Amino acid sequence: MSENIGEPIPAGQGPKAWDELVLRFEQGFDLARIAQLLAQARERGGQAQESVCTLNLIAIYFSASQYERARDALEAAGTVHPCRLLVLVADPTVELESLTARVSVVRSAGAISMERIVLTATGGAVRHLESAMMGLLLPELPMVVVWGGRPQGDLLQRAVESADRIIIDSGARPPTYLAETARLLTRGAPIGDLAWARIFPWQALAAEILDLPNLREHRANLKKARVVCAGAVGAEGLLLLGWMQARIKRIEVGIQAEGEPDDDEERTAVSAIARAAPIALGHVSLFEFVAPPAAFTLRREKGILVAEVKGDDDGYVVHRVRLPPEMPGRLLGLELKVLAGQDELYAASVQAAAKLLPQGAA
Fold first, then answer.
1. DSSP letter, residue 51
2. What CA–CA distance (Å, rounded) separates 150 from 194?
3. CB atoms within 10 A of CB 49
4. Residues 145-186: tens digit of each pLDDT
5. pTM (predicted TM-score)
6. What is the pLDDT of residues 58-93, one digit of tens each?
7. In sequence order, what are the residues at sequence separation of 6 or more whose Cβ sits closer than 8 angstroms to the Cβ of residue 208?
8. What does residue 32 show for φ and ψ, rounded to 5 degrees?
9. Which of 25, 207, 219, 280 is deepest in the core (most CB within 10 A)?
10. Residue 65 in contact with residue 155, Cβ under 8 Å?
């Protein structure tokens, strides 16, 4: 049978993958055939057809390698938040036009907790992706878009207009793109950010230290703040300072790069015990703020965040917290707790962070 007519091809799978069915097309995606293939995938898992679905999770990438790097995180987050996961992989740099659909389902406690549809297009065929996406959405459920490209372009603008929420990762791009993110937020774009979720532990520890009964007196006297990033200034450091400025308008801030990120061997090491994510290029390694005569220093020591306070009347204070273990989909799962609209504190922090960029970068 001709592949463009819709012959299901069982894809070869490793022990961790799902039983995936594949269709290839020549003249655009046939949504009816994709729906039939999805029904076939549902039937393969057994008689129970009950589904649990809370949202449409749309992930957009611009190369197969981008998607492969994000795949584990998407599938882990999509299992925690039951959904229809619709992945669009658009690679216009490949001259040969091709269209492929891959379909599979995941079951949990006897019910289908995730339907996964991966649409891949190359060359000029990428023009078919947007209409196919709109035809495969489940009606009356929120639409959350995970954007794997730079925060710009016509496709992103159309996503802004139709999605309930868009999740980006500022930490995966040069920090200058925060200026464009700030402009989108000003126009009301419902953006979430994995880089924002990445600095939650720093924010939480700073707030916790300043809320200790013997240190609360310093909150009204915060004058300066400084962030150090590993190897290069990154979006996470700018967002952390932006958060501080959004909360304390008068504070003076500064950012610089020092030291090096963790080496490649440590970043790629496999361990049976989940550990905190290593310090990557541009990630925060130190956060200082001053409320004379007290000085607060938060620094990263492997998987521990250490907070030290010097100059307080009650003497030296030290507090340690363990960073959360890095699991696939952890950051995305945090951002999926908000399914629509803006996080006002994030929006204010991005606006403040964009003002810290060098003149001309915005």
1. B
2. 14
3. 11
4. 998 876 656 666 777 788 899 999 999 889 999 999 999 999
5. 0.86
6. 999 988 898 998 889 888 888 788 899 999 999 988
7. 319, 321
8. -65, -40
9. 25
10. no
Domain ranges of the chain: 9-141, 198-354
The residue behind tokens 């990154």 is 234
CATH of 198-354, one of 3.30.360, 2.40.50, 2.60.40, 1.10.10: 3.30.360
- The helix (run of H) or strand (run of E) holding residue 80 is helix 64-80
Report the alpha-carbon angle 334-338-341, nearest 5. Answer: 140
Cis peptide, bond prior to residue 10, ω within 30 of zero: no
Q: Find the range with the poorest average confidence among 116-125, 187-196, 259-268, 303-312.
A: 259-268
> For residues 2-36, b (16+ Cβ closer than 10 Å) or e, as one string?
eeeebebeeeeeeeeebebbbbbbeeebbeebbee
